[in-house]
């Protein structure tokens, strides 16, 4: 049953990731004059870095990006965190570590989605909101990396 759950959540997460990627590549980026969305900036961003993206978004691209932030990405976050937890569900002590890191990633990514939505869909960019959003983006990537490393450690530990 655990093996099937891993396959279902992993497959669903991969499918949703590809859907988000296609929507971003074919709708959001072209509709933002080639600028990348803020949540792709692993090392964070400031007002100057994301202002061109926000100001050049067309209505269609903004609708697509809003749909990604409000609907698709939260679903992906839950699926990915669940998959990481299931893949790391090995030795009892390791389970808790992997689950905690996956949950931390999920909370930070969901907070980032909300913060980026607030930053992107305003008339004037507010430096405080951008700084908060950027901090969530950096924390999201750090926590995702940590969760994936713990998952790999758990898998290698079980394999011997």
Task: Describe the protein in words.
80% of the residues lie in helices and 0% in strands. It has helices at 2-28, 47-56, 59-87, 92-120, 127-159. By secondary structure, it is mostly helical. The longest helix has 33 residues, at 127-159. It has one domain. It contains five helices and no strands.
Give a brief description:
The protein is mainly alpha-helical.
The major pleated sheet works out as: none
Number of strands: 0
- Proportion of helical residues: over 70%
Number of domains: 1
Proportion of residues in extended strands: under 5%
**Tell me, what's the shape?**
elongated
Q: Could you list the spans in which at least 5 consecutive residues all have pLDDT below 50?
A: none
Structural class call reads: mainly alpha
Number of H- or I-type helical stretches: 5
Order of helices and strands: HHHHH
| Ends apart, CA distance between termini | 23 Å
Rg value: 17 Å
**Mean pLDDT level:** 95
Compile the SSE list and pairings.
Layout: H1 2-28, H2 47-56, H3 59-87, H4 92-120, H5 127-159
Keywords for this structure?
5 helices; single chain; 160 residues; mainly alpha
């Amino acid at each position: 049953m655990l093996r099937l759950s891993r396959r279902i959540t992993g497959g669903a997460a991969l499918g949703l990731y590809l859907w988000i990627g296609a929507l971003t590549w074919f709708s959001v980026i072209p509709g933002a004059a080639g600028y990348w969305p803020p949540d792709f900036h692993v090392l964070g961003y400031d007002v100057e870095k994301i202002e061109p993206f926000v100001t050049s978004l067309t209505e269609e691209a903004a609708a697509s990006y809003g749909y990604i932030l409000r609907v698709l990405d939260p679903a992906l976050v839950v699926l990915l965190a669940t998959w990481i937890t299931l893949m790391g569900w090995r030795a009892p002590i390791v389970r808790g570590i992997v689950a905690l890191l996956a949950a931390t990633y999920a909370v930070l990514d969901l907070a980032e989605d909300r913060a980026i939505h607030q930053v992107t869909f305003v008339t004037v960019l507010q430096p405080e909101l951008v700084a908060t959003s950027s901090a969530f983006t950096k924390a999201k990537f750090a926590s995702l990396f940590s969760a994936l490393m713990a998952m790999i450690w758990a898998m290698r530990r079980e394999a011997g």
